[in-house]
Amino acid sequence: MSRRVTTALLVSALLMAGLVGCSGEAEPTGGRPAPVEPQPAATPTPRVPAGKAPERGFAVGVRQLKLDRDGRALPVTLWYPATGKSGGTAKRSATAASGRFPVVMFSHGLGGRPDDYATLLTRWAAAGFVVAAPTFPHTSRGGDGNVLDVLNQPADVSYALTEVLALDGRNGDALRGRLAADRVAAAGHSAGGVTTIGLFTVGRDERLDAGVVFAGTALGVGTAFAGAAAPQLFVHGELDEVVDYAAGRAAYDKVPWPKAMLSLPKGDHGRALLSDGAALRVVSDTSVEFLRWSLYGDAAAKRRIPTDATRGDIATFDDHL
User: Per-residue pLDDT tens for 2-21?
Assistant: First the structure.
């Protein structure tokens, strides 16, 4: 996305409103029936490759990549499958496991950092994904808190993705020959969810094959989903006190591609993502199977998604995958 936030004041104001809590659309008044919505066209077929995800779990390595986009410092935390016994905490600069692994770009929320989501992201890495999470210059903890800068973050993620994928061919890099550059997803929480939606709308990055949106809204980036079909998984707490559930649902409803929404009736804005517990396990297992299907093309993983999503009656699942 090339335009700066200073040229989009109205959109920025809407984005600010969305991040502090939105309400649903008003019901029609005056006793007249609501207009009939046109029937949507057939759902486009996604670019899901035929394949199978790794059956075993991996140990996890973690490292830092220092990037800068035109003066915007973008340090990136990388979690990746590593050699050794699975389980335990991520090991700094561990040797990467053999194989080629899909890449997931993760965007943190306002006032957050990638490490806040380490419990979830290490589980993705242990399942066979390289997870790359930029720390954004203005919306991260310790930054100036300028929420309007979220509109610049889709371009940050695209830049970081280019640099991460370049590691696959870089002599001497620990991830050389380990990245599946043709299988990439974007994911994010809250303001990072806005960023992720933007990567499929105004800042469409055609390299992306799938998206995972946690507690996100489309205010500021719109719902003009573009490009090749890319399956989307939305996760939202129905008691979200920051981004109203109806706002997340409205964005989800506009997705024209295969999609599903995991709704947590007792869920808030996403604290369940930050520490282990029953809700995180449901979210983690559901998202892992979604990524196994959408990036590895694992048909068995797709069949497991509804079971994982509804385990323990913690969440409900709207399935249009």
Answer: 333 333 333 333 344 444 33
Domain boundaries, the chain: 53-320
User: SS3 for 69?
Assistant: strand
> How many other β-carbons are positioned within 10 Å of the β-carbon of residue 119?
14
Parallel, antiparallel or unpaired: strands 232-237 and 210-214: parallel
Phi, psi of 49 (to 5 degrees): -75, 155
Instruction: Give the helix/strand (H/E) hosting 130.
Output: strand 130-134
Q: Where are the beta strands (DSSP E) in 29-75?
A: 59-65, 68-69, 72-73
- With 0-12 CB in 10 A as exposed, 13-18 as middle and 19+ as buried, what is 259? buried
What's this model's pTM, rounded to 2 decimal places? 0.88
CATH 3.40.50.1820 fits 53-320, yes or no: yes
For tokens 């004041």, the residue is 9
Mean pLDDT of 141-158: 96
